[in-house]
Design goal:
With 249 residues, the chain is mainly beta. The chain folds into 2 domains: 30-131, no CATH class; 147-248. The protein is built from 2 helices and 15 strands.
């Protein structure tokens, strides 16, 4: 009987130790200031857009994730102060790998003018933002396609670069959406702004030729190759955007 009690006691101690170790290995994440190195500023925002800027940094290992971000706009001094956090997961197994990340910060609608965007943790990290006067009362100058993925494809043999996009057109009871034009603007040197301009057509033959799920793909060579680190910024439907970090050596 004593041996049985002893064995039961040992079993309970082992189970408690394992439970404690598991809890120690999976604690709640710690929110820490994000290590931001650059601020990407897409061009083309006006004073009725939901303006956004994109922060870029590198995580030292896989125990970090993107946290929260916010901005304070001082229209009088024409400054925007942004702050951001990362989520650090201590006590877990981490792969030591430099991992780039981006974090989009919505600024809301701000008056036209030239602004300085400053990162709160390191005021040496800053960039310039220009907000122009609206050309139309619509939130967007154009109707944009619903792009869900975009990237720059580099041919390993020729080195030529191509913009590739995929998405699904929304459903319309009358007519359908098609791509009309895709404009690519490099602004100034580290951001590619893509405008996938769409239109609604009522041509039955065109609409019938679309796949049942209204999926679409687009590929076009870049007139000017992109080099180094930067941001691929694609305008999409309803005032949204798709942001992708790119690094082409």
């Amino acid at each position: 009987m004593k041996h049985l009690i002893l064995l039961l006691g040992l079993g309970l101690n082992v189970a408690a130790a394992a439970h404690a170790a598991q809890n120690q290995q999976s604690p709640n994440p710690i929110e820490v200031p994000a290590e931001i190195e650059r601020i990407f500023i897409p061009q083309g925002f006006d004073d009725n857009d939901n303006v956004e800027v994109v922060l870029h940094g590198n995580f030292p290992n896989t125990c970090y994730q993107v946290g929260n971000a916010e901005a304070k706009v001082d229209a009088a001094s024409r400054t925007v102060t942004v702050s951001a956090t990362s989520l650090k997961y201590p006590g877990t197994f981490c792969i030591q790998s430099i991992t780039p990340f981006i974090q989009t910060v919505k600024l809301g609608i701000i008056p036209e003018g030239d602004y300085q965007v400053i990162y709160s943790k390191d005021q040496q990290v800053r960039s310039s933002l220009q907000v122009t006067r609206r050309k139309t009362e619509s939130p967007d100058d154009y109707l944009y396609a619903t792009v869900e993925n975009a990237y720059i494809d580099v041919n390993s043999e020729s080195g030529k670069q191509a913009l590739k996009m995929q998405g699904h057109f929304p459903f319309f009871f009358i007519g359908c959406m098609v791509l009309k034009d895709v404009r690519v603007l490099k602004s100034p040197t580290d951001v590619l702004v893509v405008q996938p301009i769409a239109e609604i057509v009522e041509d039955e033959a065109v609409c019938a030729s679309q796949p049942e799920d209204r999926a679409f793909e687009y590929t076009s060579g870049l007139a000017e190759p992109f080099k180094g680190e930067g941001l691929l910024h694609v305008r999409t439907l309803h005032g949204n955007s798709l942001n992708r970090y790119i690094n082409i050596q």
